[in-house]
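Minutes, project check-in
Item: structure for the 286-residue chain
Input as provided by the requester:
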Amino acid sequence: MRRTALAVALAVVAVALTAAAPARGEGEAHVAALQVALRAKGMYRSSVDGVLGPRTRAAIRRFQRRAGLVPDGVAGPRTRRAFGRFGRHRLGSRVLRDGASGWDVAALQFSLAWHGFASGTFDGVFGPRTEEAVRGFQHYADLNEDGIAGPATLRALSGPLPASPLGVAWPIHTRVTSPFGPRGDRFHEGVDLAATQGTPVGAAAPGVVTFAASNDGFGNVVVVAHGSGVVTLYAHLSRFEVAPGTHVSTGDVVGLVGATGDATGPHLHFEIHVRGAAIDPLTALR
């Protein structure tokens, strides 16, 4: 209901600083595209993680047997053809825009997510949310924001992942119960931190509160801008302890842990965005 206001809060940018990216650990986009194709055929139910592990190979063999192919667990040309539209088009073989579908679109969605711009479900279909993600990445990468994934956008996606120029403190000193990365057929853009109802949540760094309200699946959420393009988000809060415009220091309480929004129990969902791109918080937490 307040999606636009929250989007503006997350897109707060200051002076753009470039930092070295952490080691890539996001899996392979072409493997993610294979997993999306297997999901579309009902052969694979695990996460679209881009890792060619035992579950993915077993799913390939199941599909090959059903398609009357040799079940060797290798997604070669004949297996790709048997996938139909989900097996067509290598990423980079054509310009991608609204209405496109196929292997390359699934690979694009996976790459966009790891670069901080998730587009909802990994489904190999270029719809409005994928276009929005492309535009967000193009803005981040200082490209023409046309929502079309052409050569310049794909080249930029082959570069390093976004990283924070600032180190930040843990908002709660606890364990991570759900990491940043693929979760089923979608992408988790932050980390979930274990905590009981009412646990105080501290600001991760000095900054200014730009958003403190209820927002759809996030429930009660606070957003803090820290400068250098870095923004932190604290979601599912039971209550707020700050308002927009509040200046906070590291550790100042911004709210209390809760289970508002789409939460099955009390915990803190925590995100870090750099010039609009969601990054793995564990790469910046100190």
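Outcome recorded: The mean pLDDT is 93.
No further action items on this chain.
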